[in-house]
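Hypothesis: this fold can be encoded by more than one sequence.
Test: take the structure tokens below, design a sequence, compare later.
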């Protein structure tokens, strides 16, 4: 079988079933998915595992998560992978845009929103072939193109299609006897999570709801000026309760 190199246009011979190939004329690395030929890149991590874990801890200490998560969470497992994505460069009205679709089923949200610095991409080469951290795509290239069309992209504006393997640190951690996982992008240090111990809104709702009922009852039962005193006392209690709740969660 012969395929056409997307870079130089040369016809290149491939054996049936062969997916990885370096063009013998221009040295571009290409990936062949059912006779569709796309570029084949690797994105190298800019941070190591301790740095990725430090990013995770900073995220845990942030405002979205339950208080004390960064101190109480126990990291129980770490894995480094090169996750496969389909990468499209689109040129519309002079503007260049990048669209990304996971090339493997993943519970990690946010993968589509990752920014992939084009300058940091390098061609996949024969040294990568034995790397077990590199995951192969399980979503067909044609499915990714279909998704692109559904997103309203005119296929003729796609100037580059590629399979890119992006570096991810996957952490497993335990918090209050529950297990969670989080992914840290090894290129941008961005933390991506689906489920995590979030700040609970329930205690706030209880304080707010209780205050409303108290104010209502006082208004019904008390006359003027006692009601003003009652309102003042209730307001103080509510403020103290809210502060206590904020401290604890
Ligand atoms: Zn070529």
């Amino acid at each position: 079988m012969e395929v056409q190199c997307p870079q130089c246009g040369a016809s290149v011979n491939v054996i049936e079933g062969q997916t990885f190939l370096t063009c013998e004329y221009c040295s571009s690395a290409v990936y062949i998915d059912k006779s569709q030929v796309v570029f084949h890149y690797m994105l190298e991590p800019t941070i190591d595992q301790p740095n990725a874990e430090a990013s995770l801890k900073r995220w845990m200490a942030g405002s979205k998560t339950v208080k004390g998560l960064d101190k109480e969470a126990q990291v129980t497992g770490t894995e480094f992978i090169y996750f496969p994505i389909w990468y499209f460069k689109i040129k519309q009205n002079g503007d260049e845009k990048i669209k990304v679709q996971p090339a493997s089923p993943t519970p990690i949200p946010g993968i589509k929103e990752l920014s992939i610095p084009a300058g940091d991409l390098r061609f996949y080469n024969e040294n990568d072939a034995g790397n077990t951290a590199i995951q192969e795509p399980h979503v067909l290239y044609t499915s990714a193109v279909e998704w692109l069309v559904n997103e309203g992209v005119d296929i003729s504006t796609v100037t580059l299609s590629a399979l890119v393997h992006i570096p991810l640190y996957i952490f497993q951690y335990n918090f209050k006897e529950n297990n969670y996982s989080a992914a840290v992008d090894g290129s941008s240090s961005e933390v991506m999570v689906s489920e995590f111990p979030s700040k609970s809104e329930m205690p706030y709702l209880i304080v707010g709801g209780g205050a409303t009922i108290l104010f209502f009852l006082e208004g019904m039962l008390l006359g003027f000026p006692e009601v003003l005193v009652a309102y003042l006392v209730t307001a103080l209690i509510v403020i103290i309760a809210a502060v206590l709740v904020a401290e604890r969660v």
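The chain has two domains: 2-192, 202-248. The helical segments are 49-60, 69-72, 141-150, 202-221, 226-248.
Hypothesis status: open.
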